[in-house]
Amino acid sequence: MQVRRRISCLALLGVLLVGALLAGCGGGSDKDAKALLKRGFSESIPSANVSIDVSVSVQGVPQLSQPVRIKLGGPFKSNGRGKLPSLQWDLNFSGGGQTFTAGLVSTGTQAFVNYQGTYYKVDDRTMARLQQAVASGGTGGGRSLKSFGVDALSWIKDAKQQGDATVAGVATKHVSA
After folding, report:
1. Is the pTM of this model over 0.85?
2. Closest CA to 96 of 132, 131, 56, 148
């Protein structure tokens, strides 16, 4: 009888230990992950490395039998409220048998558009209008997606906190969805 009791206790301890180890491997609650995402969507971001990769399959259009893919990415840095940001974003498009590349470089005071590997300077008058629009609160000056009726947070389903990670030398919380 005592041997059975010991085996039962050891089995129970084993189950508890495995449960504790699994809980320590990330798996934070759904509420914690949603709260973290809500905080991330509500705070301003002074700098980031933006990466967006979208692939769309279109049914019923013979010219688009292969997926259309758009990739946008590169560094972004805020230059303060009411000022244009500094950024260097590249855009790659492929679809319908076509591919092209483009990009945008902004120093905050000057901008250059890249199309198929050739840079074109944005004229000073256009830059002055953009600067003025941003300074007066237009063209994204503090506006969020939500102000345009887009609630990106609602697109995220089954969010789970996966633990801590270091990304480019910065301590982060890993959330998957």
Report:
1. no
2. 56
